[in-house]
Amino acid sequence: MNSADVAFCVNTRGGDTLLEAIDLVKCYGPVRALDEFSLHVDAGEIVGLVGHNGAGKTTFVEIVSYLTRPDSGHVTIDGKPPSAVKGQVGVAPQHIALYPSVSVREHLELFGKLAGLRGQALTTAIDDIVVALRLGDFIDRHAAVLSGGQQRRTQAATALIHRPALLLLDEPTAGADLETRQAMLDVVKQRAGEGAAVVYTTHYLPELTELKATIAVVRNGRVIARGTHEELVDGLPGEVQLTFDNEEEITVSTTHPANTLIDLLSREDRPISTVDVRNPSLDDLYRSLAVSNAP
Most exposed residue of 99, 143, 217, 252, measured as fewest CB within 10 angstroms of its CB? Predict the structure, then answer.
């Protein structure tokens, strides 16, 4: 067994954890892309990875999908090394990776067969994903002539077609139109509901709210915060803004917007034209942990 193989060890953790990464380190020359990166994802859970460019999100996806090896640390998928469970993983990389002269249908047939689907099982899987991701209008077009959103949906379909136990979706809606974004979110929620573990990297934070994802914030190659939306934004400031009839405004930063609003209204006797209450959001979390403190 060589040193690269040692990095992938057998998972001894019990429970429903499907993906476990412990203390991953990956260096590219002087750049430490991952620095003791640790994360676990349970079956049926969607984990949203957020962080600035270069934080290590894509490197983590590449290691889990067995496209590269860690220098140290280990990964297990359903208790096995990534090399032993390729058929249980679906990967949609950040950059489009389709064959320009191959049709959407032919892509689905190819990736379905690579995952072991044959005959009626393959036909049914293609039919299901075509409906789920709304591919029917361009199923027989070559990838080269598809719009950006259509390419995104096709690429996601190649990762989803065999209903893998683990989905790795790296910026799956980057640059996508509204139809593509909604189709993608609907399918991800459905698959997680069926028991798939999902790792979903994105810069579009409202998607994670819609997906009801747990969130892992990545900075400098490691996870620096992990929890639900509510847990992570607790204590972050929101805003209350009052606009009066004379167009004067009052804006107050507060960790308790509702209470602050009640207090302001009780002390103001001037006519108010508008009230705006903004609770702390994932954008606030992203800025506080991943952007403002980035090197």
Answer: 99
Final residue belonging to a domain, choices 232, 252, 287 = 232
Average pLDDT over residues 142-148: 96
* pLDDT tens, residue by residue, 187-237: 999 999 999 999 999 988 889 999 999 999 999 999 999 998 888 888 888
φ/ψ of residue 211, rounded to 5 = -75, -10
When divided into structural domains, the chain yields a total of: 2
Regarding pTM above 0.85, the answer is: no
Nearest of 198, 147, 219 to residue 42 by alpha carbon: 198
Residue 109, domain member (yes or no): yes
224 neighbors 289 (Cβ within 8 angstroms): yes
Structure-token pair, residue 196: 């798939």
- For 204, the token pair is 């579009």
Nearest Cα neighbor of 52 from 220, 225, 232 is: 220
Collapsing DSSP to helix, strand or coil, 56 comes out as coil
* Residues 278, 238 contacting (CB under 8 angstroms): yes
- The answer to whether residues 222 and 257 belong to one domain is no
